[in-house]
Amino acid sequence: MSSTIGLGVPVPKMLPVTGTWTLPFTGYLLLLMNRVVYQRIKNKQWIGDKLDGEKDKTGDHRKPDPLYLEGRCHMNFVENVPFAFLLTAIAELNGANRTILNYAMAALFALRIGQVELGLRGKDTLAPGRIIGLLGTQGFLGGMAAYGTYLVKGYWGY
Fold first, then answer.
1. Under a CB-based contact definition with an 8 Å cutoff, are residues 154 and 143 in contact?
2. From CA 5, how far away is CA 75, in angstroms rounded?
3. What is the pTM of this model?
4. For residue 116, what is the DSSP state?
5. How far is CA 20 from CA 13, 33, 37, 40, in A?
């Protein structure tokens, strides 16, 4: 598959796997962003990361501030996914197996959703999805970095 630029010069699609996964990850990012916006509008809290006067009215220290919780869900996603995309793109540009990359991105997508929906937003913010999502994402980042390094080992003479 290729497209043309300028005078009809064919240019191959260089990042089809990475490009494929932009839609689902962006869709989920938009959901996380809108949850923060919803809390801001609902509580008329236009700036800051916590609700004014939300000082634990119930006496339950495990119940998090709703704005802070949604903000952390959003920030955790933003802290990890861009770097994961960068590592995937580097591997793909260096000839990675596209099937492996697709499975890896699908796993990362499930892990990121699991960390939020089955972890941070779960009971006491400590549901099992949180640790599984965290460790799985770390495994993805380490594994994709190692795979990208393996793909260019010839450059270093190995």
1. no
2. 38
3. 0.85
4. I
5. 12, 21, 27, 32
